């Protein structure tokens, strides 16, 4: 269970007039209990939805309030939280660090009690499951954008997290690869929190959160929450 209790995220911002720096609210206050298997988060660019996503595994820490995952506080127990909550970025190049796919997946397995040979075998197995087995040893630069996103997913999921948070994972993909990644995410056994602009994908979630101006302004079943989002985009405040 992921819980956000009266969470506020702020940042320091220079005063354009030359005065003292100011505290600017980025998100909150937000109180949520996230238990559903598939949760979608939608909102305009700059609304705060990516900040919300990054709170869930401790990439962003709350300025006030608390975020917990199965009772673990993201501020105090960050490493343990990140073992439970995997994160996939919009751009796979932001998280792929090794020169070949098999090396990248093996790197993500380094914290598990495995021998080097066992890590290599587990990495090959993970790539096979994602349809990348024949690309295991090619340079990452030789992969298409869709294949790199699959590699990013394989590297995260190889560690078997309980929750997967995806921040617009299909935004940079064409329709063919978007459909493939969507199908993969929908078939996962893990709880998935999906930040997306794809309203068709959001409509298949169990619950949808609408973020605007740093606040969750709608929260409910896909039909009602997405209706509120469409109204918001047309200039009608919920």
Structural class given helices, strands, pairing?
Answer: alpha/beta
Determine the number of helices (DSSP H or I, runs of at least 4 residues). 8
Q: Spans with pLDDT under 50 lasting ≥5 residues?
A: none
Shape summary: globular
- Helix content bin: 25-40%
| The top level CATH class name of the domain at 2-94 and 161-233 | Alpha Beta
CATH superfamily of the domain at 2-94 and 161-233: P-loop containing nucleotide triphosphate hydrolases
Distance between the termini: 28 Å
- The radius of gyration is 19 Å
Spatially, the strands of the biggest sheet line up as: 6-7-8-3-9-10
Element order, helices and strands? EEEHEEHEHHHEHEHEEH
- Say how many strands there are: 10
* Arithmetic mean pLDDT: 92
């Amino acid at each position: 269970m992921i819980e956000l209790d009266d969470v506020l995220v702020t940042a320091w911002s220079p005063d354009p007039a030359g005065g003292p720096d100011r505290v600017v609210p980025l998100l909150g206050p937000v109180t949520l209990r996230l238990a559903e298997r598939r949760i979608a988060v939608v909102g305009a660019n700059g609304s705060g939805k990516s900040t919300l996503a990054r709170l869930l595994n401790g990439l962003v820490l709350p300025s006030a309030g608390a975020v917990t995952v199965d009772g673990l506080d993201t501020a105090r127990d960050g490493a343990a939280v990140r073992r439970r909550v995997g994160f996939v970025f919009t751009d796979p190049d932001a998280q792929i660090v090794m020169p070949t796919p098999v090396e990248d997946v093996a790197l993500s397995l380094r914290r598990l009690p495995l021998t080097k040979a066992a890590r290599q075998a587990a990495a090959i197995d993970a790539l096979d499951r994602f349809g990348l087995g024949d690309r295991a040893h090619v340079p990452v630069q030789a992969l298409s954008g869709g294949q790199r996103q699959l590699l990013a997913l394989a590297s995260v999921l190889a560690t078997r997290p309980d929750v997967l948070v995806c921040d617009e994972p299909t935004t940079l993909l064409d329709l063919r690869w978007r459909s493939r990644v969507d199908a993969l995410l929908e078939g996962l056994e893990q709880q998935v929190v999906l930040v997306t602009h794809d309203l068709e994908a959001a409509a298949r979630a169990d619950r949808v959160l609408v973020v605007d101006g740093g606040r969750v302004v709608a929260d409910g079943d896909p039909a009602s929450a997405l209706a509120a989002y469409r109204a918001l985009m047309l200039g009608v405040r919920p």
